[in-house]
Amino acid sequence: MKSNLKQNNILRSMIVALMLVLPALMLITSCEKVEYVTAEPIDPNLCDTTNVSYAEVIEPVLVEFCIECHNSGRSDAGVNLEGYDNVQTYALNGRLKSSMLGTMNSYVKGEGADCKKQQIFAWIEQGAQNN
Ligand code: HEC
């Protein structure tokens, strides 16, 4: 009987110790950085804004939606968006982005219009390179 009580006491103190140690352990492990493995996008409609290419992405968008009013012959608001050098000027001085968020926003039309704008903004942020 007596040794049983002693065993009970040992067991109880072990449980108490565990109750103190477990939360501490959980706290420590919860601070560890969880790294997620990012899968390749499977949805082809997802907008790819990584390393946006001027030649492949930006120029075709400008040619389709902007060039008719902003070329070397007709340059509305004095803006010529023909060729990389001209486009770079407006990319770096902020007017390309501000115009596309403002009065020129609706000129980019059709499927993927939002993505095309995001790609142009990303390209500007990536340094507006002739890539
Ligand atoms: C139908 C003709 C037309 C088209 C198409 C057009 N623009 Fe314009 N754009 C104008 C006119 C007119 C202005 C001057 C009035 C204004 O700012 O709204 C202008 C102004 C601008 C400006 C100067 C804004 C400023 O900073 O003062 C920029 C930059 C510009 N457009 C870029 C673009 C881009 C980029 C596209 C294509 C997405 C585009 N435009 C399409 C007619 C056009």
Distance between the termini: 85 Å
Which runs of at least 5 residues are low in confidence (pLDDT < 50)? none
Q: What summary fits the major beta sheet?
A: none
| Overall pLDDT score | 88
**SS strand fraction:** under 5%
Number of helices: 5
* E-strand count: 0
Molecules bound to protein: heme C
Task: Calculate Rg over CA atoms.
Answer: 30 Å
Keywords:
5 helices; binds heme C; rod-shaped; about 130 residues; mainly alpha; about 55% helix; 2 domains
Secondary structure layout plus pairing:
Layout: H1 2-30, H2 54-65, H3 84-92, H4 95-101, H5 113-125
Helix pairs in contact: 2-5
The chain binds heme C (HEC).
Heme C is lined by residues 65-66, 68-70, 76-77, 79, 90, 95-96, 98-100, 103-104, 107-108.
Characterization of the model:
The chain is an all-alpha fold and 131 residues long. The protein folds into two domains: 1-30; 54-125, no CATH class. It is 53% helix and 0% strand. It has helices spanning 2-30, 54-65, 84-92, 95-101, 113-125. Helix 2 crosses helix 5 (113-125). The longest helix has 29 residues, at 2-30. The radius of gyration is 30 Å and the shape is rod-shaped. The protein starts with a helix and ends in a 6-residue tail after the last helix. It binds heme C (HEC).
Briefly say what this structure is.
With 131 residues, the chain is mainly alpha-helical. The protein is 53% helix and 0% strand.
